[in-house]
């Protein structure tokens, strides 16, 4: 005879809070898995569309400690898909990490939530991920994902990649030295003009929810100790056509020569790869620098910017220029850009990622 635990028996046991009773009833999770979730620690990088769904799902599931790192503030167009925010947060001018933390603490007071308002980069990511059992991708650009990937592989910590644009998305858990890492599958980031962003190509809320749900599920498997159940494939979804495809990419690790997990060259973590930002003295502007050898397709960049620019996009053989809101953006042939209208490097990097890509 199988005895099914109830909320009352769980409450009486004392070890597992009754709020997780339905989760514990799922045999593959059980009380042991739930205890592991409660004892686990996660660092979430990025708290936009994917990040808000991820954070809420894992906090409701009882992950014991969640550190939320995000550099951005809330805009009205975020509310269509970023589920932890509302109009009051915009009125209070709250950064995303802090607004999310406030909501999450009211959802589950047993979970420790730490909000860190910062741009995650090679100088601070080691500290921000200190003590974390798992790293989660709620970002919107390849550069930060490659940075997370470097740290995860170097420190042998699992992480879960996720990306969504339009109605399509990708999800892939990474268990270092067992499964392909992100650079096994994507050795180099696509050039900015070939990397669409939510701000230039749009995004549908249901696609966000599906991808973040897949990420959260893989995270719960890992944190509860069920590595045998982890999906060791690249999952591709299209919610518009209801297509779900699992791609076997294991050979990219087994037979590849990945610069990260095979050659142990952590270019993004060391700061040798990726962008840098320099405030231009007296100009209320920031220059975003790309790694040596980078090039951009001006025609593709101009087409991309035309969908969001205020007025005309100007282009010649040397640069593309436009105005978006209060900011003037100039992109040069080597991918370098000058963002005028802010002296803050974090704001400039965010604008570059939103409208040009990274």
At a glance:
The protein has about 350 residues and is an alpha/beta fold. It has 15 helices and 14 strands.
Write the layout of secondary structure elements.
Layout: H1 7-13, H2 21-25, H3 30-38, E1 41-45, H4 49-61, E2 65-70, H5 87-91, H6 96-107, E3 112-117, H7 125-128, E4 134-137, H8 142-155, E5 159-165, E6 168-174, H9 182-185, H10 198-201, H11 205-223, E7 234-238, E8 243-247, H12 250-254, H13 267-270, E9 276-280, E10 285-289, H14 298-306, E11 314-315, E12 319-324, E13 327-332, E14 337-340, H15 345-355
Parallel strand pairs: 1-2, 1-4, 2-3, 4-5
Antiparallel strand pairs: 5-6, 6-7, 7-8, 9-10, 10-14, 11-12, 12-13, 13-14
Helix pairs in contact: 4-11
Structural class category? alpha/beta
**Percent range for β-strand residues:** 15-25%
- The radius of gyration computed from the alpha-carbon positions, rounded to a whole number of angstroms, is 21 Å
Biggest sheet: strand arrangement:
3-2-1-4-5-6-7-8
Highest CATH level, the class of the largest domain: Alpha Beta
Mean pLDDT: 90
Helix content range of the residues, please? 25-40%
How would you characterize this protein structure?
This protein has 358 residues and is an alpha/beta fold. It folds into two domains: 40-269, NAD(P)-binding Rossmann-like Domain (Rossmann fold); 275-355, TATA-Binding Protein (2-Layer Sandwich). The protein is 35% helix and 20% strand. It has 15 helices and 14 strands. It has helices at residues 7-13, 21-25, 30-38, 49-61, 87-91, 96-107, 125-128, 142-155, 182-185, 198-201, 205-223, 250-254, 267-270, 298-306, 345-355, and strands at residues 41-45, 65-70, 112-117, 134-137, 159-165, 168-174, 234-238, 243-247, 276-280, 285-289, 314-315, 319-324, 327-332, 337-340. The protein has an eight-stranded mixed sheet with strand order 3-2-1-4-5-6-7-8, with helices on both faces. A six-stranded antiparallel sheet has the order 9-10-14-13-12-11, with helices on one face. Strand 4, helix 8 (142-155) and strand 5 (159-165) form a beta-alpha-beta unit. Helix 4 packs across helix 11. The longest helix has 19 residues, at 205-223. The termini are far apart. The relative contact order is 0.12. Residues 1-15 have low confidence and may be disordered.
